[in-house]
Amino acid sequence: MNLNQVTLPSIDPENSVRFYQLLGLRLIVDALPRYARMECPDGASTLSIHLVEKLPQGELPTLYFETERLDEEYQRLKEAKVNFDLAPTDQSWLWREARLKDPDGNPLILFFAGKNRKNPPWRVA
After folding, report:
1. Pick from 46, 54, 68: which is nearest to 12 by CA?
2. CATH assignment of 5-52+77-116, given 3.30.360.10, 3.30.70.100, 3.30.1490.20, 3.10.180.10?
3. How many CB atoms lie within 10 A of CB 96?
4. Kindly report the CA angle at 61 between 59 and 64, in degrees rounded to 5?
5. What is the DSSP code (8-state) at residue 60?
6. Is the pLDDT assigned to residue 2 strictly greater than 90?
7. Mean pLDDT computed over 75-103
8. Which residue intervals define the domain VOC in the entry (predicted)?
9. Taking the chain, what is the end-to-end CA distance rounded to the nearest angstrom?
10. Which of the 8 DSSP states describes residue 115?
11. What is the pTM of this model?
């Protein structure tokens, strides 16, 4: 089994698609204004956006996008006027991460963990 697709609700899918394209995702299904699917530039994962009348309330799932070029991507996105809640920061769990939200408020983390993503020193045998 492999997690390969996540779908996010959006009140403005066209705006969300522009945002995720700025992050580097490529549009592969265009059924806007109600639906779109994009693929990540690395790996085989896809992300889709679908139109909703009202966004969900409360705690939302967090999407993580890993890049070896975290600091460069952060700078590129800052220059493109993307707002971040946290600049790239080394975390105690051995990841370096930056936090932001997409246009619909979905939390995102851009990070680099390398081998520590799946094999931290405290990994269960």
Report:
1. 54
2. 3.10.180.10
3. 17
4. 140
5. -
6. no
7. 98
8. 2-113
9. 20
10. G
11. 0.93
Please state, in angstroms and rounded to a whole number, the distance separating the CA atoms of residues 98 and 85: 8
Name the average pLDDT for the chain: 96
Instruction: For residue range 47-76, list pLDDT tens digits in order.
Output: 999 999 999 999 999 999 999 999 999 999
Tell me the three state secondary structure of residue 116.
helix
71: phi then psi, degrees, rounded to nearest 5: -65, -40
CA distance 123 to 29: 38
Helix (H, G, I), strand (E, B) or coil at 114: helix
11, 55 Cβ separation under 8 angstroms: yes
pLDDT at residue number 43: 85
